[in-house]
Amino acid sequence: CSESDLLLAAAFVSDAQYNRNIPFKTSPEAVRLYHLYNHWMMRTATYFFIFLNLSLALFEEPAVYPLPFLATSVLEVLCLLVFLGRLTHFAKVTLHNVFWKDTKNICIMVAILLSLTDLAIYGVLRLYNVRSIRWSRIVRPIFLINFAESRQIRRAFRSIRNTLPEITYVFLLFMFSLLMFSLMALKLFGERNLQTAEGLPYFRNYLEVVFDLYVLVTTANSPDVMMPAFDFSSWYALFFIAFVIVNTYIFMSLFLAVVYNNYKKHLKNEIRKLAYMKRRKMIEAFNLLKEEEGEQFVIREARWKQLVKLVAPDTSNSHRELLLSISDDQQKGFVDKKSFVQLADLLNIQVVTLKIRRHPLARWVPALYGSAPSRLLRSIVRHRAFVWTYDAIILINAIFIALDEESPYISYAEWVFLALYIIEILLKVYTYEPREFFGKTQFWNWFDTLIIFAALTATILNATLKSTMKYNSQQILDIVFILRVLRLIRIVDSIQRFRVIMNTLINIVPTMLTFGGLTLVVYCVFAIIGMELFQGKIQYFPANSNAPHALECGNPALKDSLFARGKYCKNNFNNFASSFIVLMELTVVNQWHDILCVQPAKLYFIAFHIVMVIIIVNIFVSFILEAFFVEYSLEKSEVETAIEQKIQELGMGVQEDDLQDEQLLDNMESAEHELEREGGAKPQSKGLVFKIASKRYRTVDALLQRMFEAEIPLEDEGPSFEEILNLSPSSPLPRSPSSETAA
Amino acid sequence: CSESDLLLAAAFVSDAQYNRNIPFKTSPEAVRLYHLYNHWMMRTATYFFIFLNLSLALFEEPAVYPLPFLATSVLEVLCLLVFLGRLTHFAKVTLHNVFWKDTKNICIMVAILLSLTDLAIYGVLRLYNVRSIRWSRIVRPIFLINFAESRQIRRAFRSIRNTLPEITYVFLLFMFSLLMFSLMALKLFGERNLQTAEGLPYFRNYLEVVFDLYVLVTTANSPDVMMPAFDFSSWYALFFIAFVIVNTYIFMSLFLAVVYNNYKKHLKNEIRKLAYMKRRKMIEAFNLLKEEEGEQFVIREARWKQLVKLVAPDTSNSHRELLLSISDDQQKGFVDKKSFVQLADLLNIQVVTLKIRRHPLARWVPALYGSAPSRLLRSIVRHRAFVWTYDAIILINAIFIALDEESPYISYAEWVFLALYIIEILLKVYTYEPREFFGKTQFWNWFDTLIIFAALTATILNATLKSTMKYNSQQILDIVFILRVLRLIRIVDSIQRFRVIMNTLINIVPTMLTFGGLTLVVYCVFAIIGMELFQGKIQYFPANSNAPHALECGNPALKDSLFARGKYCKNNFNNFASSFIVLMELTVVNQWHDILCVQPAKLYFIAFHIVMVIIIVNIFVSFILEAFFVEYSLEKSEVETAIEQKIQELGMGVQEDDLQDEQLLDNMESAEHELEREGGAKPQSKGLVFKIASKRYRTVDALLQRMFEAEIPLEDEGPSFEEILNLSPSSPLPRSPSSETAA
Questions:
Q1: pLDDT at res. A661
Q2: Substitution target from A588, A605, A613 for chain B, most B beta carbons within 10 A
Q3: Distance (Å, rounded) from C-alpha A673 to C-alpha A691?
Q4: Pair A361, A368: CB distance under 8 Å
């Protein structure tokens, strides 16, 4: 068993830990390259270039900040070279036939080729002053989706693809219903010679009726479309009520139901795959390092430590010792297979190592720090009343912010509040150990400190600018305002019930980023198409411009339109940033039929509505529903894994020592203490406290995975790699039958 | 064991069958009264008077159809007397202390008293020409909720009440977020001197900012509220994007999640209660009728038959025989406890008794009916191509409807289509047995026939009126148009995938009625309050009226408002019907800030939004989600109860006889046959076919209850009545632990 075996095992364990799924070559050089491939700097660099490539649209024509064509094309070629390099690196790491079978890689290569070709053609045509379309810009989001790092986004796309067949049937039925209602509307209202509020003919043309009623499904033209018929006869309101109940309430809920149902089904399947994959990788690693010991195979302590050092170089010695003492329960000097398999999970549990050290001041000026006034001060800060006092101060601050700032007293008060907040932070740092106060999981401490110091910096900067240059920077003032209000959020964390909801919201954030990615991809594609189709059709002029047709957004056809009347001129596709904002408005749906004013835009807008609102927003809602249900069921049932219990058992037997510093923990998470008592281990005699990072910062994925793992027996080696990859949602693998039906 | 015991047992069984939950006295007269109380005519009458009482608002001032005060007050007193009578009847039936402890009954009595008092005061004041408010009209919906018949509506209200505490916390957090964002908006935009598109000041006053942003949460003023800030600087769009993501997408989803989660939890609990209650009632009934037989207690066949005849007087003899042969499996002449307990479920399963009888024509004119051309004709009608031909005809019909009707050829075509459809129905009746064709569960046959004959009647009526009186009745024409389009819906049933979705939709209908009731209650209360507050503020004038301020809806304050510009004048609270339509528009949410134009209306509208959109619409969506999931999981897993299997087993052993009539079944439900093969029993030699009414007409409640019952062991007698009523959702009763977490 050599050094290279150890490296290979480390690669397996690290893959298991981060749920990576790359079939790499097992030769020593390949494994070394693979470790390099997974290095966080390489990954960050890839993401940087992906986003650079996407943001090129801001600088290319039609640009928000114009750059010469040469500059953007050089940047694009640079990005493409980086992608090619990354792909080559990947090719060296993985097996030859696996690499060429993977559509992801083929996609990236085709995208690089297309981009280069398009760039070359466009450049040559430009030399001859021929204007052509940069069509390859649509393929740019492919890099975001297809690089191996974006597993989450790909999963979301897979989930959408899997939902499509089911949603198609509901959609067809919905369209059928829409067409039937339109036919009825045409027959009922078409020959009445009615007029809309704008004096246009009402429900005369079948296609227009269909479109108007499609808009009504999104509720965007809700009473307007009904009013002419309603004015004619009150009974006609019944038609619209029936329409809204059937199409808006029932069909839209049905869409959500179909999307949610599929989302859940496929999520379960994906999580199951991940769990089996992890198990298998850990067994591979075990087989590489195992040695015979009596009747069983085991891994000796020394090799185990080498492995952990390789996999997680950042962990402290004491943390490693803790992990070992959990894995090697009876201190036999080796780790058996069953314990080894849990290593990936053990490494994933964020254990906070609290060195129980004295406060730095207690070491430097022990006499002063230990004196009676100092003790009193610290006990005041630790008291509950201290928290309440500051909650009261925040409330008073809120009132001051709401009041007008004209009076000088109020702007002085701002300085007072700033000072009070700074004193609070200093007092807390004085009382608690600073490295603990700024621990990784102390979200609110970091939040407070950052907000306060940013506000302090901005306020001082603003005051300096004002006194020296007699100039009020609007940007800085805006930031000061926002920071001032953000400060008030902290009060939410003081109330236990709000805290639970906030935890759900905080846990949702990581996966929200996945949806951010998904939305980015859809927005990019639609924005680029939109710019090619509608660029320059609408222009924005400042309020007091005297350009011709300034009031009609530079387009005489818009005279008297609702678009111009609503002063929507800035909602245009003239550059990448505006396009994004228009697409955001279309996602919110309201008034989209007014924003849409060019005739051929209808199809574009309907396509966007179907993709974004019916599919992606529903997936987003499904995700939030699922996240909430998972959080909620854990709140109630206190699922604790075997591993957590072990840490707890281990900590239990050790005597308590420094009461004062234990109080530190009590105070830091005082309100959370009831929930976390099981999670936090008692301090060890060495002056170490291990504490599982609080529940509130666990992601939904991790929670779901843990749930599923609890269902696989520990002895089960699971199916082979090939079997795992081909698992379908309906394949008969162990799971409780009631969970499907009772859910 | 006497006649009165049998009556008492019948009451228990009937309660179990219909999930009634009334603790009645067991004395013979009380039981007799109780049977009368539950008679369908008594129940229908109660509902009639409840709806009469509610609809009085249409005739009372401000009236849609004015009636003199004397008439409405006499009607109201009549209704109240009926309610009092019904309550007295109920009091005679139930135990004294139970009756007086039940808040439902107290509520009804208080409501009757209040209504009478108010009516008297109003009448007296009217005599002296003093105008007062009929405030007691708000209590009218109490009758709808509190009569024992409206179990479903009460359950929905209970579900809302149970959800309230949880929703309150989310709501407070949401309000906090709204207030914070408003504060930020005030600081950022308040001092910029911006103007809205209407030239009004933008974001100057804190309360107005809060209201504008609340409207933005509902997306009703989506781009408008952003445009002034966005025109000032593009960066400010980020503020609104953040606002929409946090408040519209995340918080509104959170509301749905909380409501859905609670809905599911309480639904499970209610269903569990119902299942235990049913078990207990059946055991009570058994204990009344049991006789000793060997070592066990049983019920003898004769008595069993008497009981079933009492409980379900409408069932045919053969049906009763079938039930007996299922309950008395080995034909021992008695029914044991275990089988007896299932009787309520057995009675609930809609078994269609198909008497395999010859077609009436085959009996009357056997030679003609059995002749070669007749056989050929019948085999054509049974052929798949016949269905396809008519699908094609429907499609061609759709095109003709969409075309303009000016040309005489097209209006002749309408007669041709009508004739074709009538021929289809006649051919089908000729081929299939008529009583079977119009069986209870043949939804589409009924649908077709009704639509076609209504269309025929209306068309003939219209043609007659036109030719004799030269008069085109618009109402009749409208109905003809609607019927013509509705006819096209049938094509959906030809496609298997659509059929599955349609089944879900059809199954949803009964519970939708519950939500209809719920909505009716909320609408009534808000409509009555709205009429008192806003009546007469806005007036509607026909288009060419020359009344003063006709364009401003009779209210000079509305000059130049968006309300008047959108021609919304008919959206007012001037009578009960208009109020309902305005409330419907507010439920759809869009433009509600424009519909709202009177200043103090804001609070009214926000209250309505919270009650209707945040709570009731979310419960409605939850209900559709749950219904869909239940339907979906049953589609896949084919849960069949032991009872259904028994019918199947029983049918199995019997020889087949009349092939031709078996084909009847095959053809009638041809596409459904794959799904239903397990459900339909083979014909018996007596010429009887039992068939379980198809899955598509089962309600969600019944499905859920069956699911839960599968989890209770048959021997389990369950808790006592008192324990059942006090069950809480978290009480530890048997259920699979994984279903809670894995769901």
A1: 39
A2: A588
A3: 12
A4: yes
